[in-house]
Design a protein that fits this description.
The chain is of the alpha/beta class. The chain has 20 helices and 16 strands. It binds cobalamin and iron/sulfur cluster (SF4).
């Protein structure tokens, strides 16, 4: 029997549909006996898995993102492996794809499946079941007889249209529907793999190498309909890295779900969306598109180039799309990657000034600010980071130290070129900005509450005095301010 484990993905254990495990499970149905354990729902996952192993489970497959999931997966796998040395532990997901060698050096991870892993994982299980050699499997990393980690080349991305449907019956769907600004019962889907771009700060590039493959509009709409009719969803989050790559697919999808009356949200590139026809915008709006997450990244065209943002990205386009979306009543959500080397101060100041411009054009724009955290990807930014003394940890234990956990969540002390005062300036600016422009996606922040927050922060915002906004802290807490939840793409 195989246990598939989704470690808790946040301190608060917010239940997020474990799509990675559903994608893997879809191929195992009727072929391998498996069960899914979700650490977001099960507070004693170690105990649960231990019992399953005692009952005969011999493979533990774990999905691991950097951050809280890694922090949970390390001690759990270490403990289980010490209790059950013959248990085979397989890791997959964003963290092991990038840092496979560190994982395999740990000795409590036996195999790493890199990239989109459903086909490789199935082949691995088939071969382990028959005792066949696994070392030639594309996408697999393993330890050689001398103990050194070795990786095969990654496998081609499986086409999501050729994969079976997610086995929703394997998880308690009822527990994943949650309230969001789009609806009372928000569920999630992932309709495409990858992204055709090569931004040099983005982990997706390591995962897919510039490829993008999508489910047809028909299939995506059918899944949406199923989530609505069978599981009562009234809103949907699309976790695709880049949902909107093909205008024709998006529009076909929008037309097919028009009657469902749901809210939905997805991820896009600004330059792609700017090419969409007005009629497409009308259709998306009428089909319930409520917000789009986009990487605006920087307030400097020069930095966008150094990030290898590609396409025809520019700050001018960021302002255009903010204005355009305002006219359709769809909220733009921009993420910025700040504090880039070699001149992080100038980079931050430039981008803060630009964010003020964006807010003038469309005050409803949501702003997400991250500090640049390198990914192991050839490119100018990573090379500069290394030149400044940056190096990734060499053990999993080091990865789960507080400092590196902060790094993984993009609020790091481990970034040698970003001094504390600069980090504080970003935090202070964010506090003043979010008080002066309270998010419209939080239903608790309507009417008088908005007015109070704006009035209290107006002088700071107008004078550009962001330092030590102590007075705003209790006010924001009191008025139930919440930053919109996202993990940044
Ligand atoms: C949903 C999501 C979340 C959810 C949690 C999901 C969960 N599992 O509980 C929430 C919102 C809580 C979240 C939080 C964070 N996230 Co997040 N998240 C995503 C998102 C949007 C979708 C993941 C998903 O479901 N994909 C759908 C499935 C089908 O694809 P998949 O996960 O890649 O799985 C495939 C392969 O990876 C592989 N695979 C995965 N697991 C396994 C396991 C085995 C055994 C095998 C064989 C294969 C395998 O095969 C799968 C099928 O093809 C991705 C971006 C994306 N589009 O993938 C970011 C992403 C993974 N998150 C990211 C980050 C940075 C975070 C945070 C650290 C952000 C922060 N500032 O705090 C946090 C903390 C993460 C943690 N929990 O440890 C980054 C990772 C970047 C990196 N450097 O590696 C991503 C890539 C976003 C981005 N582009 O930057 N996240
Ligand atoms: S940042 Fe966005 S556009 Fe660039 S590679 Fe990553 S997912 Fe694609």
């Amino acid at each position: 029997m195989i246990v598939m484990y989704n470690p808790p993905s946040s301190g608060r254990r917010k239940p997020v549909m474990p799509l990675s495990l559903l994608a893997l499970g879809a191929l195992l149905e009727n072929r391998h006996d498996y069960t899914i354990v979700d650490g977001n729902l099960d507070r004693d996952a170690l105990g649960t898995i231990d019992r399953l192993v005692q009952d005969g489970a011999d493979i533990l497959a774990v999905t691991v993102m950097p951050g809280p999931q890694l922090a949970d997966a390390v001690p759990l796998c270490r403990e289980l492996k010490s209790r059950h040395p013959s248990l085979k532990v397989v890791w997959g997901g964003y963290f092991p794809t990038q840092h496979w060698d560190v994982c395999l050096k740990s000795r409590y991870v036996d195999y790493v499946v890199r990239g989109h892993g459903e086909v490789t994982f199935l082949a691995l299980l088939d071969r382990l079941a028959t005792g066949e050699d696994v070392t030639d499997l594309a996408g697999l990393a393993y330890r050689m007889p001398d103990g050194m980690p070795f990786t095969n080349a990654t496998a081609p991305i499986p086409h999501p249209d050729h994969m079976p449907e997610f086995p929703y019956h394997r998880i308690p769907m009822e527990r994943y529907a949650r309230a969001s600004f789009m609806g009372k019962r928000t569920l999630a889907h992932h309709s495409s793999y990858g992204c055709p771009f090569f931004c040099n700060f983005c982990a997706v590039v390591n995962m897919v190498g510039g490829r993008w493959l999508a489910q047809s509009a028909e299939r995506t709409a059918n899944v949406t309909r199923r989530l609505v009719t069978e599981f009562g969803a009234d809103a949907l989050e699309f976790y695709d890295n880049n949902f909107f790559v093909h205008e024709a697919r998006t529009i076909d999808f929008a037309e097919r779900i028009m009657d469902l009356d749901i809210g939905w949200w997805g991820d896009a590139r600004i330059d792609t969306l700017l090419r969409y026809a007005d009629r497409s915008w009308e259709l998306m709006r009428d089909a319930g598109l409520r917000m789009v997450f986009m990487g605006a990244e920087s307030g400097s065209d020069e930095t966008l180039k150094r990030m290898n943002k590609g396409g025809s990205a520019s700050t001018e386009k960021t302002l255009f799309i903010a204005e355009k979306m305002r006219s359709y009543g769809i909220v733009p959500e921009f993420s910025f990657v700040m504090g880039n080397p070699p001149d992080p101060e100038a980079d931050v100041e430039n981008t803060l000034a630009f964010i003020r411009k964006v807010k003038r054009v469309n005050p409803h724009t949501e702003i997400i600010m991250y500090v640049y955290t390198p990914v192991p990807l050839a490119g100018e930014l990573y090379e500069e980071a290394k030149a400044e003394g940056f190096a990734f940890p060499q053990t999993l234990e080091e990865w789960i130290s507080t400092d590196w956990q902060d790094f993984a969540q993009r609020r790091s002390a481990q970034i040698p070129w970003l001094a504390d005062p600069l980090r504080r300036r970003l935090r202070d600016f964010e506090r003043v900005l979010s008080a002066y422009y309270p998010t419209i996606t939080n239903p608790n922040l309507r009417g008088a509450r908005r007015v109070v927050l704006r009035a209290a922060s107006a002088w700071r915002y107008h004078l550009g005095i962001y330092q030590y906004p102590f007075e705003l802290r209790p006010l924001q807490r009191l008025l139930a301010y919440q930053r919109p939840e996202t993990c940044g793409f």
